[in-house]
Amino acid sequence: MSLLQWKEKHSVGISEIDAQHQRMFAIMNELNDAMASERAKNVLEGILDQLVNYTATHFITEERLMNEHGFAGSASHQRVHEQMTAKVRAFQNDFRQGRVAMSIDVMHFLLQWLDQHILGTDMEYRDFLTSRGVR
Question: Of 9, 32, 45, 68, which has fewest CB within 10 angstroms of its CB?
């Protein structure tokens, strides 16, 4: 069951970024499905690793585009990326060490962050980059 669905409101109008966001939605839904069906810890860990790694790739793409085109807010956007990466990596490490479990609260945090990041922070660069011809 899809927990988070891609909607037109999530589009930043840049095909590479939109495709990456859609992939992140799919991985998040896969993680939720695995949790809901009580899959083994190693399965959850693998999906979580995939989400963390793909998110890092996505952040690199965003930062590259912002820097290439001289977006004034790129430094603050990168700080947001660093903060989120630190939080998720800390959870990932705690999960691996058995100090925390995958829970509804964790899923809610991840989903809320993804949705808010796209609809808030990412929309800040949308008009700038598309005005520079980035599609």
Answer: 9
What pTM did the predictor assign? 0.92
| HSE-CB of 26 using CA atoms within 13 angstroms | 8
Rounded Cα gap, residues 106 and 112, in angstroms = 10
* Cα 5 from Cα 68, distance rounded (Å): 30
Q: How far apart are CA 50 and CA 27, in angstroms?
A: 8
Neighbour tally for 24: CB within 10 Å? 21
pLDDT tens per residue across span 66-86: 999 999 999 999 999 999 999
Evaluate whether 65 touches 89 at the Cβ level (below 8 Å).
no
Domains of the chain: 13-131 (1.20.120.50)
Please state, in angstroms and rounded to a whole number, the distance separating the CA atoms of residues 79 and 75: 6
